[in-house]
């Protein structure tokens, strides 16, 4: 079935990681997030893909053009972020007058559930959560979807909207919806109209991850790293010990004395060791460096970043071109054992994680022997002096 993938958003909640890159391009187990979405869609039954891009459109267009796809993939530009219905409207000239699927490009789906959606009539993917009030809750009566209630205080079910839909061809004429209270033209209003004219089913999804905030990028990497197969194409010393599912890309080097536990991904041109301890689930980006006496765990280190010596880094995300000075230590656990909080758009929010370290924007540099507390965000280009203890964002 023809499929529209929405990837025009800014990803403001993912800041500072989206300061210089659109969210769909953030790395998940060695590939941009949006590439996972397209691969899932193709495996599930997409016959052609129209990807709606907007914010930093060129980097997404280039990344998609650089790959070989089994089905035609085109991009269209939404010049202003007017909402998800408007995004699909931008794609409409590329679509045939047939049923179509819409997927959010910043979501990870499991392929079996998505395949189930593709074989359904008008449908919406549903996912069971513990905190439905934070989502669009599906209103279901007699097995039929009647609509979506956004963030209800008193949710009637815990089945939420996954942002994955099968629309009938007629919905192509219903995309010009009015603005919602938050000033956007929403696809859920198109779904509402579909529910009024057709029988819309809820397809239960076994797994689903909306990658909106930094700890969800960590969760996305955990999910996709766990699905890798062991593959060693790089230059690995016979005195290194690679345990379990480890991928070392061509052009990467692993020096003597290194222990890498899977699932771990070592990107092209990355350099690890000597004598480093890399624990899963970790993804090292292209041309990154991890040096002597560094312990790294459950972290994402993006391209060109370096953790060169004597550092502990756990449950953290480093953007591009970050350098941690020798002896930088990162806390990833509160002594009261409460979930670590992080700042999202100016507000402290629970990550829901007992263990979470730091988020560093691009170009951050820390001096020697500094201490970074759990839940600290360092904005792009931030500097930490030698010996400093950083308890708050900067
Ligand atoms: P959102 O999650 O609403 O937006 P976002 O991804 O930009 O994130 P943030 O709120 O942190 O800024 O968007 C849902 C999906 O729809 C996402 O894949 C982006 C896409 N989208 C468009 O393609 N065009 C639009 O006009 C809007 C609002 C979203």
TrEMBL record:
EC numbers = 2.3.1.157, 2.7.7.23
A GO molecular function assigned to this protein is: glucosamine-1-phosphate N-acetyltransferase activity
The family database entries (Pfam families) matched by this protein are listed as: GMPPB_C, NTP_transferase
Reactions the enzyme catalyzes: N-acetyl-alpha-D-glucosamine 1-phosphate + UTP + H(+) = UDP-N-acetyl-alpha-D-glucosamine + diphosphate; alpha-D-glucosamine 1-phosphate + acetyl-CoA = N-acetyl-alpha-D-glucosamine 1-phosphate + CoA + H(+)
Q: Which UniProt keywords apply?
A: Acyltransferase, Multifunctional enzyme, Nucleotidyltransferase, Transferase
Q: Which domain of life is it from?
A: Archaea
SUPFAM superfamilies hit by this protein? Nucleotide-diphospho-sugar transferases (SSF53448), Trimeric LpxA-like enzymes (SSF51161)
What pathway does the UniProt record associate with this protein? Answer: Nucleotide-sugar biosynthesis; UDP-N-acetyl-alpha-D-glucosamine biosynthesis; UDP-N-acetyl-alpha-D-glucosamine from N-acetyl-alpha-D-glucosamine 1-phosphate: step 1/1; Nucleotide-sugar biosynthesis; UDP-N-acetyl-alpha-D-glucosamine biosynthesis; N-acetyl-alpha-D-glucosamine 1-phosphate from alpha-D-glucosamine 6-phosphate (route II): step 2/2
Q: Where is the Nucleotidyl transferase domain?
A: 3-222
Q: Which InterPro entries match?
A: Bifunctiontional_GlmU_arc-type, GlmU-like, GMPPB_C, NTP_transferase_dom, Nucleotide-diphossugar_trans, Trimer_LpxA-like_sf
Report domain Mannose-1-phosphate guanyltransferase C-terminal positions. Answer: 260-352
State the top-level EC class.
transferase
- Signal sequence bounds: none
Concerning PANTHER family, the annotation shows: N-ACETYLMURAMATE ALPHA-1-PHOSPHATE URIDYLYLTRANSFERASE, NUCLEOTIDYL TRANSFERASE
The UniProt family comment states: In the N-terminal section; belongs to the N-acetylglucosamine-1-phosphate uridyltransferase family.
Task: List the protein's name.
Answer: Bifunctional protein GlmU
Q: Which gene encodes it?
A: glmU
